[in-house]
Write a structure and sequence with these properties.
194 residues, two-stranded antiparallel sheet, alpha/beta
């Protein structure tokens, strides 16, 4: 990527659709369903790696001892629906990286930076100090390598969408990173303009 990417106004509606499986419900309901999915993957002998985009999912996962143990990367901006949010970071992360990512954009450097973070395999907090983190789910999915013995799962919060033809309830989106999803994400990235 040689320039920052933006969503064209005409394509905005496509980007609000869940990228993976939507687990609808309250925060408490969705977290217990997420736990169940991860236990099933563990029972099927997968190594599970979890990547989080968003402050509320990060807060909920880090507050749950079982889920926390699988978290490799959290991408946050310390805001939720325009309100400030504080996340207790403790000593969980091996690395904290601060980054600026303009609203409604994917900064070109994020592709390389996320590749480096994933390759390092360090538990990392990726903090967007200016702008927003939402769209970073796209370069994140592209950065995660495919591996038959590893379930790489990306989670992000889904706000309720009531103004589109297909209403979407609130919940958590679980993206199982595999070939098909990578193709979908490449298509989304190709729709963006620089």
């Amino acid at each position: 990527m040689d320039k920052n990417l933006k969503i064209p106004t005409t394509e905005r509606h496509k980007f609000s659709q869940p990228l993976g499986k939507l687990i609808a419900g309250t925060r408490k309901e969705t977290i217990s369903e997420v736990e169940e999915h991860i236990r099933n993957y563990k029972n099927a002998n997968f190594e599970v790696k979890v990547y989080l985009v968003g402050d509320i999912v990060t807060k909920d996962f880090l507050a749950n001892d079982f889920l926390k143990s699988f978290v490799k990367l959290c991408i946050i901006d310390e805001k939720t629906q325009r309100n400030q949010i504080k996340i207790k970071i403790e000593d969980y992360f091996e690395e904290i990286i601060e980054f600026e990512n303009p609203e409604g954009c994917i900064k070109k450097e994020s592709f390389t930076l996320l590749d480096e973070i994933i390759t390092s395999n360090k538990r990392t907090l990726f903090k967007v100090i200016k702008g927003e983190e939402d769209l970073l789910v796209l370069p994140l999915v592209l950065s995660i390598p495919l591996n038959e013995t590893v379930k790489s799962l990306v989670f992000y919060g889904q706000p309720p969408i009531t103004d589109s033809k297909h209403q979407i309830p609130q919940g958590i989106v679980m993206v199982d990173v595999e070939k098909r999803i990578k193709k979908v994400v490449k298509k989304f990235v190709s729709l963006m303009t620089n």
